[in-house]
């Protein structure tokens, strides 16, 4: 390690002790070679002046080693997180570059360090979090959940290091930030021991008198408290052993911060607070017997001591959203004192102590907005926030973190979780979009309720539907969940698209009945002339019979006749002057007419011709030449109605451009099918994906994928490969929409 002069005597003693613990505890994920390598890098950085104390005098070696040990012991073993913490300051001090870290330690560690640098740079000017910086900080957190875990562990480390720091304002700012920001985040992630310690230290630095008073009284009563715990535990222990259970049972005093909160809430002195501690029973039991054994312990304890039903908390049947599982009951123990008993298994205790770092996602409950969704929503919340005070923003955020949830059942007994405030309409859309679109109300615990009914935990919901029901615009004000609103918007858009499709089909039938061929260009000019902003709006009006179809056809014929009389009454294709582009030296890939290059042309969007397709030119009303494929859907119409405006065209034999085309893919709506499709495209040489849109309905999906290709052979090869993807039913060329 670095030389003596770099450390104080206390720091040197701490570093040696922590280093040995870290080396021993992290052995499952870090090799001795890893440690030696990082030790050498840190020593070299110190010797070359790259590893200096910060402006508050905190030693980075001491801080990073202790943070790594907190992660190791209080969160869990994760190689990338531990190495990132130890290398972070080497990159910040420019002793190492991100590229070097990526090359020697891997891309994952480099990405984590980038996130940490981004977050820590917000503290460059001052310790207290300003409103804008706070928002940016959490935005960076949302990119990788491990960044937030490292920052929480680091903040606990700093809180421990500043007990005797001479700058009182610095201590106060750090403590407030930990209380408003890091403790709630630790709670949300299930890091309860870290959360409690952060809260205790925050109270210590912001209200030392109260902290010392409670700590002193707890020390004074420790002997009596320990004696009472043993008196309570002994008969329970004997009974559990008689049942053949394998377990650990212990008493745990509540945190000073939680005691202070209870004193304020009950407006009582410490002597009047009886439930200062909890008894924890930790079972060693197989996974399949966990719940049964926990309830067996519950039965034994409540047989011995009178339970308080109002204080029972069952997180076995319904775990918390952060994965916490446990069974809590408050019983009346000896001397008529209330005692909380927590019953859990070793696996549950591991999750309770280390949070989601130990168990990132729990199963067995169909959740609408789990941790991943919450992290994604952080961005929306912060970006929508105003420029109010930092503390106000933190309080709002804290409320969101502790927001409650409701748990409801289907008539078959399936359990679903939604946010507090969710309506019956939200529940219908959570079950299935089709069910939501047809929802007219529901039966809640056997009683008829409207779609506006706000769900309560324990409700049994039966959704009532009608085949005549369709989504309404005001449903967006009834739905309380973002997922429900998104589905309603999609349904409303789908309704509009269906109506527009019906209007278009109606017009096409009338054209066909009057034996008139419809040209898209003329129709677009007619729609614009009638004052419609979009084609969809026009066809919707047709479908709703707000426009007379015969009048539309008459206007179409007038426009078409006028354009033809003005420009093409007596001219043939040979009489058109083929306009060359200003740069006549440009090598063109097309030959138009007899043998002319450099002509001003456009590739038609209705068929997207690419190099190698059989093609022809069509002189448009604007005077430019549009290149179509010979098998274009509009080719037959063009040849039959406007043969005099058709010119020959062929590829010159010089290839070099990229051509945009659209593939229409139809298949089963299976998990992973889109990923498999895009993976194939990304592996194709010289083929690039520019966009993708997916529509899903009744188990099938239809996707339009925009790609750029060199020629027809590359496109045919890609289509052939896409057809081999499991679940894909058909792949065809489409038009750019």
Shape: extended
Top-tier CATH class of the largest domain: Mainly Alpha
Across the major sheet, the strand order is 1-2-5-4-3
CATH superfamily (homologous) name of the largest domain: Hypothetical protein af1432
Named at the architecture level, the CATH assignment of the largest domain is Orthogonal Bundle
Number of helices: 27
Q: How many whole angstroms does the radius of gyration measure?
A: 35 Å
Q: Would you identify the regions where 5 or more consecutive residues have pLDDT less than 50?
A: 124-133, 356-372, 374-403, 567-587
The helical percent reads 40-55%
Mean pLDDT: 79
Proportion of beta-strand residues: 15-25%
**Tally of individual domains:** 6
Report how far the terminal alpha carbons are from each other.
64 Å
DSSP E strands, number: 20
Pfam family, one: RelA_SpoT
Family: Belongs to the relA/spoT family.
Keywords: RNA-binding
GO molecular function, one term: RNA binding
């Amino acid at each position: 390690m670095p030389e003596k002069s770099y450390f104080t005597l206390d720091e040197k003693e701490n570093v040696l002790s922590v280093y040995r613990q870290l080396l021993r505890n992290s052995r499952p994920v870090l090799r001795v070679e890893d440690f030696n390598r990082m030790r050498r890098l840190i020593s070299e950085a110190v010797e070359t002046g790259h590893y200096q104390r910060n402006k508050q005098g905190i030693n980075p070696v001491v801080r990073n080693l202790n943070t790594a040990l907190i992660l190791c012991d209080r969160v869990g073993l994760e190689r990338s997180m531990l190495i990132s913490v130890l290398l972070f300051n080497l990159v910040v001090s420019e002793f190492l570059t991100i590229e070097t870290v990526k090359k020697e330690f891997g891309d994952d560690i480099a990405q984590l360090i980038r996130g940490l640098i981004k977050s820590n740079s917000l503290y460059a000017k001052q310790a207290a979090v300003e409103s804008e910086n706070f928002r940016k900080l959490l935005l960076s957190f949302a990119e990788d959940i491990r960044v937030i875990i490292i920052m929480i562990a680091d903040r606990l480390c700093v809180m421990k290091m500043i007990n005797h720091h001479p700058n009182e304002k610095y201590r106060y700012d750090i403590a407030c930030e930990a209380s408003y920001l890091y403790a709630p985040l630790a709670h949300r992630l299930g890091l309860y021991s870290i959360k409690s310690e952060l809260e205790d230290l925050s109270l210590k630095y912001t209200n030392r008198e109260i902290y010392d008073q409670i700590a002193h009284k707890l020390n004074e009563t420790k002997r009596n408290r320990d004696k009472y715990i043993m008196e309570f535990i002994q008969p329970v222990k004997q009974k559990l052993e008689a049942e053949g259970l394998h377990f650990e049972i212990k008493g745990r005093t509540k945190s000073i911060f939680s005691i202070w909160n209870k004193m304020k809430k009950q407006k009582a002195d410490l002597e009047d607070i009886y439930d200062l501690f909890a008894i924890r029973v930790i079972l060693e039991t197989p996974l399949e017997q966990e719940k049964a054994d926990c309830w067996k312990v519950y039965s034994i304890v409540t047989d011995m001591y009178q339970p308080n039903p109002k204080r029972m908390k069952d997180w076995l049947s319904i775990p918390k959203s952060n994965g916490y599982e446990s069974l809590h009951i408050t019983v009346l123990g000896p001397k008529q004192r209330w005692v909380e008993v927590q019953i859990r298994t070793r696996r549950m205790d591991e999750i309770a102590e280390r949070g989601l770092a130990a168990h990132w996602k729990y199963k067995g409950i169909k959740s609408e907005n789990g941790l991943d969704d919450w992290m994604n929503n952080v961005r929306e919340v912060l970006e929508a926030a105003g420029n109010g005070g930092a503390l106000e923003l933190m309080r709002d955020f804290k409320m969101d973190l502790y927001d409650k949830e409701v748990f409801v059942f289907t008539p078959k007994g399936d359990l679903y979780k939604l946010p507090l405030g969710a309506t019956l309409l939200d529940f219908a859309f959570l079950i299935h979009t089709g069910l939501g679109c047809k929802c007219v109300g529901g039966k809640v615990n056997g009683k008829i309720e409207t779609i506006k009914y706000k769900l309560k935990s324990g409700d049994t919901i039966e959704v009532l539907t009608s085949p005549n029901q369709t989504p309404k615009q005001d449903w967006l004000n009834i739905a309380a969940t973002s997922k429900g609103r998104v589905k309603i918007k999609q349904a409303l858009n789908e309704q509009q698209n269906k109506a527009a499709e019906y209007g278009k089909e109606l017009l096409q039938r009338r054209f066909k009945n009057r034996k008139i061929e419809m040209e898209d260009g003329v129709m677009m000019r007619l729609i614009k002339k009638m004052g419609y902003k979009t084609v969809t709006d026009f066809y919707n009006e047709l479908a709703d019979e707000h426009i007379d179809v015969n009048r539309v056809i008459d206007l179409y014929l007038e426009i078409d006749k006028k354009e033809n009389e003005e420009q093409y009454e007596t001219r043939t294709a040979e009489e058109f002057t083929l306009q060359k582009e200003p740069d006549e030296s440009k090598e063109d890939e097309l030959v138009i007419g007899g043998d002319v290059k450099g002509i001003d042309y456009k590739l038609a969007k209705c068929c997207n011709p690419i190099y190698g397709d059989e093609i022809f030119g069509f002189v448009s009303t604007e005077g430019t030449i549009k290149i179509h494929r010979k098998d274009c859907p509009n080719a037959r119409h063009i040849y039959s109605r406007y043969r005099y405006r058709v010119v020959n065209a062929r590829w010159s034999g010089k290839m070099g451009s990229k051509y945009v085309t659209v593939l229409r893919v139809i298949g089963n709506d299976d998990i992973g099918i889109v990923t498999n499709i895009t993976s194939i495209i990304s592996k194709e040489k010289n083929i690039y994906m520019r966009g993708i849109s997916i529509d899903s309905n009744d188990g099938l999906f239809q996707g339009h994928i925009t790609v750029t290709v060199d020629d027809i052979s590359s496109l045919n090869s890609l289509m052939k490969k896409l057809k081999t993807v499991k679940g894909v039913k058909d792949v065809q060329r489409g038009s750019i929409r």
